[in-house]
Design a protein that fits this description.
alpha+beta, Heat Shock Protein 90, about 50% helix
Length: about 525
């Protein structure tokens, strides 16, 4: 009988979208029914009703069934008499009402699920937005602080303090290269305050006095443990001291601090190491804000490089070459920081026009920074080889405006041309503006033409000839550089005047700018 009841219940629990399931019980033949409850098309529960009997069901039938199951006859018949009696038609009406209630309940439940999901997603979006705003505010503040200092100790402190703010339960260890660049030592620790005496007893030495000779560390180890991105350490805190302290000691420290994971990243810029960052996370702290932390360390690395460069400059004032090289390097790095600030600012604006202005400003800053980079790398501080510069500048612009997929070909015809810095900077800005103009306007998405941008630069006797052309839709006839409202062409016209040159525009096939100019008088540095 129990088995039959289970079978009957399972039959009543079948999912049916068309109406209630009405059946006679397998055991005693009593009427019973069920309606399924669904949420979003998913069957999650059943609403069962029963049992009832009709006048057709007699006690004699029940006595036979009770005898078959060896049940107490009187008790069974008494229970049978308590079963409500109604007609089949009346029972079907009740089950239809039950089915309507079940559908209404399903609808309400689905609405509640959707509303809960919407609230949850909205709360998550709000949390993500708040976190993003907090991260951007933090990066803006840190970059401003880094720009305003040249002391390595302050740079390390800014980084450690900021990471501790982002990961409150973490332990932050910052190591730095000593001024003589011969050793690495711990310079800042955050989060260890209440454990200092216990840790000193374990280490048996002041951690700030531990010197790790750079010569004892292979380049491979330096690049791995002090990489340019956050990397989880497979040996916990052991790698912090490059085998200077035993693994057993570090395991004791990890137990005291309840360390779960350790992440490392190096302060490095242009292949040079300036120290390392280690973040030890206890059990309750998850690693978050990875990209923000990496950006902060990257900016700090440039600030450290600038700081070390400034020290080198001050120590080498009697060497003109070193002084000029580091000046150009500093200018380039400062422009990179300005470029980073413009990039961060662009994330806070929505208008396409404002975004274009910021993007164009980044291009102008980048074109000037590349001049200083070329001077920094050049053995001759008075002249710049323009061939490599133009190719790199054009490639950067192609990448900036993300037009690789539109099959725009670059053609260069640049001879061995050298210019002084006074001429190179305005010339570079002119190239930047005109190539940018071609990329933005000469090749609309609807055009089937394979785009070509050609840059020619030659030195002819006592002047230079710069030609920039494209096979695009052409510059409208009413636009003239000397009389235009567009900032880019105004800038080109002013720069040509600065170079005491002339500009000619050919609109026959696309647009072709021909600019003739002479090298500006260059005062020798003394």
């Amino acid at each position: 009988g129990k088995k039959n009841c289970h079978i009957s219940d399972s039959m009543m629990g079948q999912n049916n979208f068309d109406g209630p399931v009405i059946r006679k019980c397998i055991s005693g033949g009593l009427w019973e029914a069920g309606a399924s409850i669904n949420i979003g098309g998913k069957h999650i529960a059943n609403w069962l009703i029963g049992q009832v009997r009709s006048e057709a069901q007699k006690e004699d039938q029940m006595r036979v069934y009770a005898q078959k199951l060896d049940l107490d006859m009187e008790e069974f018949i008494e229970a049978f008499r308590e079963v409500p009696v109604m007609s089949e038609d009346q029972f079907r009406k009740i089950t239809r009402v039950l089915f309507a209630f079940a559908n209404q309940l399903s609808s309400l439940a689905y609405q509640n699920v959707q509303q809960t999901r919407f609230i949850t997603e909205r709360q998550k979006a709000e949390r993500d937005l708040q976190q993003s705003l907090h991260e951007k505010e933090t990066m803006n503040r840190v970059i401003t602080q880094l720009v305003g200092t040249s002391k390595t100790s302050e740079i390390y402190h800014i980084v450690g303090e900021t990471i501790k703010e982002l990961l409150p339960s973490s332990y932050v260890i910052i190591s730095g290269i000593t001024p003589d660049k011969k050793n690495i030592r711990i310079v800042e620790c955050f989060g260890f305050e209440k454990y200092l005496s216990e840790l000193e007893n374990i280490l048996e030495i002041d951690p700030y006095k531990i010197n790790i000779p750079v010569n004892n560390i292979s380049q491979k180890e330096m690049d791995y443990y002090l990489s340019d991105h956050l990397k989880e350490s497979t040996k916990g805190m052991y790698n912090l001291a490059f085998r200077k302290i035993s693994l057993k000691v570090f395991r004791m420290i990890e137990r005291v601090l309840d360390i779960r994971k350790v992440y490392n990243m190096g302060f490095r810029c242009n292949g040079q190491h300036y120290g390392g960052l280690s973040i030890a996370l206890p059990q309750e702290q998850l690693m978050k804000h990875e990209r923000t932390i990496e950006t902060i360390v990257s900016q700090a690395s440039m600030a450290l490089q600038r700081s070390f460069a400034e020290k080198a400059i001050k120590e080498s004032l009697d060497e003109k070459e070193v002084l000029l090289r580091e000046i150009h390097h500093r200018v380039k790095n400062n422009m990179q920081i300005i470029n980073s600030l413009l990039s961060l600012q662009s994330q806070h604006v929505e208008g396409e026009e404002t975004l274009d202005v910021l993007k164009e400003s980044q291009g102008r800053v980048r074109s000037m920074a590349m001049i200083h980079e070329k001077l920094y790398q050049s053995p001759n501080f008075t002249k710049i080889d323009f061939k490599d510069y133009i190719e790199k500048l054009a490639s950067n612009l192609i990448y900036t405006y993300q037009v690789q997929a539109r099959d725009i070909k670059q053609v260069f015809d640049v001879k061995d041309v050298e210019m002084n810095i006074d001429t190179a900077i305005p010339c570079g800005l002119i190239i930047n503006e005109l190539v940018t103009n071609s990329l933005k306007y000469a090749f609309p998405q609807s055009s089937d033409t394979n785009g070509i941008i050609k840059i020619e630069l030659n030195q002819e006797e006592d002047h230079f000839k710069l030609v920039i052309s494209d096979n695009g839709v052409g510059l409208p006839s009413h636009i003239q550089p000397e009389n235009t409202e567009t900032l880019g062409l105004q800038l080109v016209n002013n720069l040509v005047n600065q170079l005491e040159g002339t500009i000619k525009i050919d609109r026959t096939h696309g647009t072709k700018f021909t600019i003739i100019f002479t090298e500006l008088n260059y005062k020798e540095r003394i």
